[in-house]
Amino acid sequence: MSTSSSDHEGQLSHSSTSEKGRATWTFLTNHAHVLAVIHADPEKVLREVAVEVGITERAVQRIVQDLEEEGFIERERVGRQNRYHIIEGRPLRHPIEAHRKVDDLLNLIRGK
To answer: Which one of 17, 64, 91, 110 has the largest count of C-beta atoms within 10 Å of its C-beta?
Structure first.
């Protein structure tokens, strides 16, 4: 049976698979998942982003704050909602992938 623990991004993480037999770890971080969901639908509310990514709404709020503070997204207030804009052309953060830009990642995820 796999063990579990709560991770810092607000989801339950397991060492191998969930009780339903679905893989519980991925090659991309929750930051990348949130970025991809926002890129696909910039007007999606964070509650919907949380459901799609599979983490808490509070975790999505923290991730969006991180992405905004680091200049990967901009938030625009439209009425009572936010619209998010991805700042393409920004290099990825880790030294291993810093030679690539955020739009390279999004194109990979979108299949372009």
So the answer is: 64
